[in-house]
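Lab meeting tomorrow. Look over both lines:
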Amino acid sequence: MEYSKVNNLLHGGDYNPEQWLDRPDILKEDIRLMRLANVNVVTLGVFSWSSLEPKEGVFTFQWLDDIMDWLYENEIYTILSTPSGGKPPWMVKKYPDIMRTRRNRVRHLYGERENQCNSNLTFRRKVKEIDQELAKRYAHHPGLVMWHISNEMYGECHCELCQQNFRQWLKQKYSSIETLNEQYWSNFWSHTYSDWDEIESPAPHGETAVHGLALDYKRFYSDLSIDFLKQEIEVVKSFNPEIPVTSNMFHLNCGIDYHKLHKIIDIASWDSYPKWHCGKDKSTDWSQAISAAFQFDFCRSLKSQPFLLMESTPSTVNASDVCKLKRPRMHLLSAVQAVACGSDSVQYFQWRKSRGAYEKFHGAVVSHNGSAETRVFRDVCDVGHFLNQSSHLKNTVTKSEVALIFDYDSRMALLEQKSLKNKNKNFDEIALQHYEALMKNYVSVDIISQDWDYSSYKVVIAPVLYLFKEQTANKIREFVKKGGTVVMTYYSGLVNENDLVYLENPPAGLQDVFGVESEEVDSLCDDEDNIVNWNEKQYRAIDYCDLIKANQAKVLAKYGSDFYKGLPALTENAYGEGNAYYIAFHSDGEFLFDFYQELVKHNKIQRIVDIVHCQDVMIRERESEDNKYLFVMNFSTHERKLSLPGNYSSYRGKELHNHKLLLKGYEFAIVQKSNN
């Protein structure tokens, strides 16, 4: 693919020269500064529609011609964006119905971005026209290495056209209104539909009680948005199918099912903005590092190949509650972390700070004064130097024997369900806790959906898999039967794919595999806990305690207090050639760390490095056919010492001496070992 034109890891970011067309001196200086920072790629055109088509049907491409040619002459390649993420004012003035309608059925006025109706045929036609003009002109430009389709797609529209399309989507899914009523259990509260035209999407002043409907509208709009992106991809690919495409993802809850989106893009990409230095303990950024790593692994797992960090900030953001500066060494460390987790790029929003409007104080590589003598610019140069010296890391891969299920359908359904704790739901955090426990055990993890193929893994973990498709139960059964290990938790296997409760105790369809069945779940108040004794150690049970009955499962731990004292809290069941574990309680991270430590040993999982966890130190691995590269990163202000067993040699960052590393605050080391 054309992406291979660039020999090194990608370094660059969003470049918006249309903001500076009246300042050729600034544009010339940008090229000089880019070369100084080892920038080899920039993204153009993300929000350039007004500059590309200032009036309907009047296209002005000369400025883009000049910029792309100029960049290419200076060995800087272009990722060219389709501009559908932001529309020009003339379009909304002439076609007001292209704007999105909110849940309350009020249509947006012109403004903001990504607020179009994805059903609107006029908007689709205008997008197709501008995409055709761009692709016809630039698809074979020697500097073009990738298409960037739209930008951070998110949100929903609830206009009448979307309602009509939703009804068609429902007809295709359910075939008959009777089947829909059955799956929605709509006779409750007398909400039975007699005709498709009676169905409306959820609204704050309308239907909010039919959870199957709410879930289906989220699925419908995700499918609609993916279809919108697919139309754009088909247009640009028709002019040159060799140019790969991506669409930058940015949030785990943006309303798009990324496990479906990945099927239409060539390369997955992610926009990452961790809130560094904002934790309660200002001496550590471990929790922020874990959250960032989880998102990177989620993105990497989508295509089972390296992804691209499409956006980050070299310093600060502008829209957080507290907009902290990155401390010294943090920018390089955060860039190394992205590469360590599978990225083949480090890119920024944006290259040069804007003079006005919403993001004028968002961090950028070049500040308002245009100077190269700034801390931020020097930090970016350090990253550019690191990437330029690390070409061997490009296309290296991450291999995992463990997978964690983080499922779009189940997550969306959990947001709607009414039970347990209805405020401050922490289901995402629960998945993150399991992930963190594995990271502390230095185990590589893929983040997958329940529809994924499990066969390549030794262990599959399913925390709070509330929505349970029938085929998922069959897949888990076969996986365990053939020797795999599955870990499942409380509040899993309750409802089918339409949020309709199974008429059996959970985990539905798998009671024999796990050897248990759940009868009730107790929600603990914030100031409550229970105790669980396991392996001669006592742990806290917080938030949720599942009251289960062990049929044939072996009870490994029991509750220590309350009316369910003595009931099973942790079980193991042998099924076929494998094992199924059921964790009945929500715990703090201490239990999960200890539990997975034992599980990793028992299942002979290949650890990244076989050492005791070093506080605040994340260790990741990428490998080629010939070498393994170990990334050792200290996410605290404190000095950390550790030893690395094995025949490793220093590669980048801090030097390794006699198997020992001494990392100062926010320092890293990359070491390598031959696979031969």
